[in-house]
Design brief:
Elements: H1 2-15, E1 23-30, E2 40-43, E3 49-51, E4 57-61, E5 68-72, E6 79-82, E7 88-92, E8 121-125, H2 126-132, H3 138-143, E9 149-151, E10 166-168, E11 176-180, E12 183-184, E13 214-220, H4 225-228, E14 235-241, E15 247-258, E16 268-283, E17 288-299, E18 322-337, E19 340-356, E20 379-397, E21 400-418, E22 432-453, E23 460-476, E24 506-522, E25 527-538, E26 542-556, E27 559-570, H5 574-578, E28 581-587, E29 590-597, H6 602-607, E30 615-628, E31 632-649, E32 653-654, H7 661-667, E33 671-696, E34 699-717, H8 727-730, H9 733-741, E35 746-756, E36 759-768, E37 771-774, E38 780-783, E39 786-796, E40 801-808, E41 840-848
Parallel strand pairs: 1-7, 11-14, 29-33
Antiparallel strand pairs: 1-4, 2-3, 2-5, 5-6, 8-13, 9-10, 11-12, 13-14, 15-16, 15-41, 16-17, 17-18, 18-19, 19-20, 20-21, 21-22, 22-23, 23-24, 24-25, 25-26, 26-27, 27-30, 28-29, 30-31, 31-33, 32-33, 33-34, 34-35, 35-36, 36-39, 37-38, 39-40, 40-41
Pfam family, one: TonB_dep_Rec_b-barrel
Family: Belongs to the TonB-dependent receptor family.
Keywords: Cell outer membrane, Membrane, Receptor, Signal, TonB box, Transmembrane, Transmembrane beta strand, Transport
């Protein structure tokens, strides 16, 4: 800690030497004269900017001779003002329901700002975050700025090495709904297996959307299935794409890890290169625009295999996969009139990856010495293509606002295996294979109507709409040599990842229809009431009706209470219903053939496992928001979430099981598992955010303490059919530990952000709480809590060019070490929040014109 405090002191003390230019002081107020907290103030045409404090005031040192300031805030229309004068006073008007309307997730009222919301909403300004942190992709950016958000880098987890699973408030990746510009984003085709967070879940791949294309991210930390539909049990993440015009932004970033625990003498690894460009052009004089982003990211392998197992048979290759991402995204709006416009947005992402599989040693019966005399380390490759597009029209219709859109998305995941062999082919075996894969597609047609009645009490907003959605899921086989056994005396199929077989192949689809109505009534200027009701019908499992009730009451001008209660649901994904595979797992270093049987397979039907059905939930949130004085703000939100019939991946049943054993022996597999509605869980938690703004010398220091405290309990394990009464065998302690590890007891962020003139620095401490997993021997693996420290320094070289350098995990902290033979992944750590790569150094060059 002394080293941490020294780093802060040196950064802050040196900053005052860089102050220069004219000091601009001002205050931003709303139409009623109340201070607007957190408004963005940017000197036009430069990288120079700041945010207003608790009293709406700001200080900014100009970099140009005749500065102009662009001032914006969620729920208000942006305003441009001259920067001269001793004191700048700005009054922002509320965003109207015109072409430039701003919507905030959690409310369909276009006149509602985030501070008025009855539900907790985090607004994350990506411009600020990407400038001052070392993380490059969306998952890792959110991991270190939003305490209720958790994402883990995976290794040794097959497909999850290439797609990072993410969770909100400790629930599953598929229990958070992701929107882009308010429209439902499709999920990934991947089902998370092995020791991943979100084991047995599907989820949305946030990293297909480049951070350079995003203006802000809104996180609704509240159950919202009644408002937005299936998957919104934990909350909603809404990604808002950039709409800026006449501004070119370009970034070049590079970073690398301090290479501890390598088997060689290499000092750095995991090189991460990113380059992106964003530009927008205006169209016409009614606010139309086209904003486009190109992004490329290349991430190299890390190597963390130098932690020996007792018998010397630890994996020789263990670490992050090598990943390359290329993305192109656009956001556009075309005015038809003063009250109508067409919008088009979306893009594509091409990802290729190489991930380490388990080592096959020279004497292994799965090796062919004539090909690999020293054994080999298979590489699982991925070829992932993700694309989405939305087209819609927004128009005034009488006193109503009408929105009609069509949204199509697709995610295709194609596996390959290289540096491998099929042992049953002997010395004639190929060393690379096409292993097949899967694809998920979604098409959504939605119609929404909203109307605001300003004369009903203090204002009534009514919204109604309908949505039709079709989903398709397909699983396609690999080449024959990737799965076939040509010699029954040895194990066949491509080592590292056996290909999908013809018996795995499936094509499935379903339809969904939903209709909703919601209303928000301002009973008085201090008291808001809101309610939502949604009906949905799925062609494969039936209908559901859910509701939500909310309220917000301003006790004083500086103290607000808010609360919600809702029911929710999540339909099992088509991937969970239809996925089927035979793969190799390693238990105590021994390879085991495992059948993951689809829900309607002969195995599950013989066992009496019922068809998957929807998960249901009840959740409540009660919160307090306060401005304490002119520079301090506090939000507290307690929550309760009860989920019934969670879809999980069961324990692996062995071939010697008295019930399922004979069936598995007939299929020539050692173990089997399947998806089932097997668990009821209960979560109790608290989100805390404390912000303070202070003038320090000629600059401004923003301090933030943000924390999530969470306790998840498994209330009940549900068994059925021939396995009734065998709860510990069906969904045992080891599998339950994986679910609980997705809900760490706490995560606490403490951030100091100082800006003076052309110089800025950010210091952030993140405390990751302890958690417990269970090893292959059934013994607990207790990961101790850790504190990581990030340090970033930024300096404006010119009015348009900024240099940022820094380090994430400055003091090179690692998780608790374990025997690699006993972990799920075969390395010294299972995937945990803080990651297992150590210190990261980075530098960025950012241009803005």
């Amino acid at each position: 800690m002394k080293e941490n405090l020294l780093a802060i002191t040196l950064c802050l003390a040196s900053a005052t030497a860089f102050g220069q230019g004219q000091a601009l002081n001002g205050q931003v107020l709303d139409a009623a004269g109340r201070p607007v907290i957190g408004a963005t103030v940017v000197e036009k045409g430069t990288n120079n900017g700041t945010a207003t404090g608790g009293d709406g005031r700001f200080t900014l040192r100009a970099r140009t001779a005749s500065p102009r300031l662009v001032i914006s805030s969620i729920g208000f229309s942006a305003q441009e003002v001259e920067g001269g004068g001793e004191q700048i006073s700005v009054r922002l008007a509320e965003a109207t329901t015109s072409l430039g309307a701003v919507q905030v997730v959690g409310s369909r009222s276009q006149n509602r700002s985030v501070t008025d919301s009855p539900s907790p909403v985090d607004i994350i300004d990506l411009r600020e975050v990407t400038t001052k942190t070392g993380q490059l992709d969306v998952n890792q950016l959110l991991q270190f700025v939003a305490p209720s958000f958790n994402s883990n880098r995976q290794t040794g987890s097959d497909g999850a090495d290439h797609v990072d699973p993410a969770t909100l408030r400790g629930l599953g990746p598929d229990q958070t709904l992701v929107l882009v510009n308010g429209k439902r984003q499709h999920q990934s085709a991947l089902v998370n297996l092995f020791g991943t967070r979100g084991r047995g879940n599907t989820g949305t791949d946030l990293n297909v959307i480049p951070a350079a294309s995003i203006e802000r991210i809104e996180i609704l930390r509240d159950g919202a299935a009644a408002q937005y539909g299936s998957d919104a049990i934990a909350g909603v993440i809404n990604i808002v794409l950039k709409s800026s015009v006449k501004e070119l932004t370009a970034n070049v970033n590079y970073g690398a890890y301090d290479a501890k625990y390598r088997r060689d003498d290499k000092k750095f690894d995991g090189g991460n290169f990113n380059a992106n460009v964003n530009y927008g052009v205006g169209i016409g004089d009614k606010g139309g625009f086209i904003n486009a982003t190109l992004d490329y990211n290349q991430r190299e392998h890390t190597q963390r295999a130098n932690v020996p197992a007792p018998d010397g048979l630890a994996r020789r290759e263990y670490g992050d996969p090598q990943i390359s991402n290329a993305s192109a995204y656009i956001n556009s709006k075309f005015a038809l009139s003063d009250k109508a416009h067409i919008y088009v947005f979306g893009g594509g992402n091409k990802r290729k990856g190489d991930a380490y599989a388990w080592t096959r040693f020279a004497g292994d019966d799965r090796n062919v010495p004539a090909i690999y005399p020293n054994g080999f380390d298979p590489i699982i490759t991925s070829d992932i293509v993700d694309a989405s597009g939305v087209v819609g029209v927004h128009t005034a219709l009488g006193g109503w606002e009408l929105d009609l859109s069509n949204n199509f998305g697709s995610n295709r995941f194609h596996y390959g295996v290289k540096n491998t062999l099929n042992a049953s082919l002997g010395a004639s075996s190929p060393t690379s294979f096409d292993a097949g894969g899967f694809q998920l597609q979604q098409d959504v047609v939605s119609l929404g109507l909203t109307r605001n009645y300003k004369t009903v009490l203090q204002g009534l907003n009514v919204a109604a709409g309908a949505e039709w959605r079709r989903e398709w899921y397909s699983l396609f086989a690999g080449e024959e040599a990737s799965y076939r056994n040509y010699d029954p005396t040895v194990t066949g199929g491509s080592q590292g990842f056996p290909g999908f077989q013809p018996s795995d192949v499936i094509k499935a689809d379903r339809d969904n229809f939903g209709a909703y109505v919601d209303a928000e009534l301002s009973v008085t200027q201090r008291w808001l009431l809101a309610a939502a009701l949604r009906y949905e019908h799925y062609s494969d499992f039936g209908s559901t009706l859910n509701y939500k009730a909310s309220t917000r009451f301003n006790l004083t001008d500086f103290l607000t209470l808010r609360g919600t209660y809702s029911t929710g649901f999540r339909a099992p994904s088509l991937a969970q219903i239809n996925f089927n595979s035979t793969f190799t797992n390693f238990i105590n270093g021994t390879p085991v053939e495992v059948l993951l049987a689809r829900n309607n397979s002969a195995v599950t039907q013989k066992l009496g496992i019922p068809s998957l059905k929807q998960e249901t939930s009840n959740s409540a949130n009660i919160g307090l928001t306060s401005r304490i004085g002119s520079s301090l703000s506090l939000t507290l939100d307690g929550y309760y979430i009860k989920v019934k019939d969670r879809v999980v991946l069961t324990t692996q049943f062995s071939a010697d099981d008295p019930v399922i054993g004979p069936d598995l022996q007939a299929l020539n597999v050692d173990q089997a598992q399947f998806f089932a509605n097997a668990a009821d869980t209960r979560s109790l938690g608290l989100d805390v955010v404390l912000n303070h703004t202070a003038t320090l010398g000629e600059g401004r220091l923003n301090s933030t303490l943000a924390a999530n405290f969470n306790h998840l309990r498994i209330d009940r394990v549900r068994t059925s059919g021939r396995l009734a009464g065998r709860e510990d065998d069906f969904f045992g302690p080891r599998e339950q530990a994986f679910v609980k590890a997705s809900a760490p007891p706490s995560k606490i962020n403490l951030t100091f952000d100082y800006q003076v003139g052309r110089f800025g620095t950010l210091v952030r401490f993140v405390r990751f709480d302890k958690l417990t997993l269970i090893d292959w021997n059934g013994d607990p693996m207790k990961y101790d809590s850790r504190v990581t420290t990030d340090l970033t320094v930024n300096y404006a070289l010119t009015n348009h060019l900024q240099l940022i350098v820094g380090s994430s995990n400055l003091f090179n902290r690692y998780p608790t070490l374990f025997d690699p033979q006993l972990t799920e992944t075969g390395g010294a750590w299972d995937p945990v929040q803080m990651g297992s790569n150590g210190r990261f150094y980075f530098a960025k060059l950012q241009a803005r014109f």
